[in-house]
């Protein structure tokens, strides 16, 4: 009887694994080769476009840097403008409040003056007939 030893079995497993890895590697190399052919064809057909793109790349980068710098400067100017507008709005609000309070104070003073004039001149006249009536009543009562 022929028996399979553990060594023979291990050797069989290693050989089977080596065959599977070899098949996988062959398939991988074939796929890489096909992809390289496709890439080569694309580059060959678009050679002029690729060359022009590579030639223009430094100018594009330079323009992007200039645009970024201009945007940064414009944002700084905008920030300063907004800060100034905020300060102006605060000063305008403070001035308006001061003017409002000043006008109200003056109007209050004018109204107090008018009230005083009304009491002095017009209340005396209206009290005069009442005072006469009181005097007449006192006279009649005696």
Describe this structure in words.
The protein has 142 residues and is an all-alpha fold. The longest helix has 95 residues, at 47-141. Helices cover 95% and strands 0% of the residues. The protein is built from 2 helices and no strands. The protein has helices at residues 6-45, 47-141. The protein has a domain at 1-45.
Entry keywords:
single chain; 142 residues; mainly alpha; 95% helix
What is the topology?
Layout: H1 6-45, H2 47-141
In short, what is this structure?
The chain has helices at 6-45, 47-141. By secondary structure, the protein is an all-alpha fold.
Radius of gyration: 52 Å
- What fraction, in percent, of the residue positions are helical? over 70%
- The total of helices stands at 2
* Uncertain parts: none
Range of strand content: under 5%
- For the terminal residues, how far apart are their CA atoms? 167 Å
Give me the strand/helix succession.
HH
Which structural class fits the helix and strand makeup? mainly alpha
């Amino acid at each position: 009887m022929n028996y399979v030893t553990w060594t023979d079995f291990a050797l069989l497993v290693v050989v089977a694994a080596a065959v599977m890895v070899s098949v996988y590697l062959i398939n991988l190399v074939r796929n890489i080769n096909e992809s390289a052919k496709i890439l080569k064809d694309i580059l060959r057909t678009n050679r002029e476009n690729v060359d022009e793109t590579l030639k223009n790349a430094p100018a594009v980068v330079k323009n992007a840097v200039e645009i970024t710098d201009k945007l940064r400067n414009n944002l700084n100017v905008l920030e300063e403008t907004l800060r100034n507008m905020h300060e102006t709005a605060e000063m305008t609000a403070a001035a308006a409040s001061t003017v409002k309070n000043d006008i109200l104070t003056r109007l209050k003073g004018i109204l107090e003056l008018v009230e005083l004039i009304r009491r002095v001149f017009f209340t005396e006249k209206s009290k005069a007939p009442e005072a006469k009536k009181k005097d007449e009543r006192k006279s009649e009562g005696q």
